[in-house]
Write a structure and sequence with these properties.
This protein has 122 residues and is mostly helical. Helix content is 75%, strand content 0%. The protein has 4 helices and no strands. The model has no long low-confidence stretch (mean pLDDT 95).
């Protein structure tokens, strides 16, 4: 089995986080310590929790817990994207594109939770 960065879900989550970083650069300065910080943090946490899960994949319970945490952060990111769209900071098109990617990541994370054995978990 390859490394963490070889996992498609990690690649997609990392790419989404970087896209969110780029679009959030245009958010108003008054959002710096609220929406901007929150959306960047939650999108990055998807990857960070995946890294923890992958490192502890010898322990099924820990693996599932950390992938579940990753899924929760992904869901939080979706809410922040909705706020960004509703506040007019991102277009409907950008929102749909980022949200659709997040939904795909969520499906992949849920597959990991349901089938941990496919990811080296014993």
């Amino acid at each position: 089995m390859g490394g963490l960065t070889d996992l498609l879900v990690f690649e997609k989550a990392f790419d989404l986080s970087m896209k969110i970083f780029e679009v959030s650069k245009a958010f108003p300065v008054e959002e710096k310590y609220s929406l901007t910080d929150q959306i960047r943090r939650s999108s990055r946490s998807v990857c960070a929790n995946l890294a923890e899960a992958y490192r502890k994949r010898l322990y099924k319970g820990h693996f599932i817990l950390k992938v579940s945490d990753s899924d929760a952060e992904n869901s939080e990111t979706q809410i922040w994207l909705k706020f960004a769209n509703s506040c007019g900071y991102i277009s409907d098109e950008t929102h749909h594109s980022l949200h659709d990617t997040s939904e795909e990541i969520g499906r992949m994370l849920n597959n990991m939770i349901r089938h941990p054995e496919k990811f080296g978990v014993r």
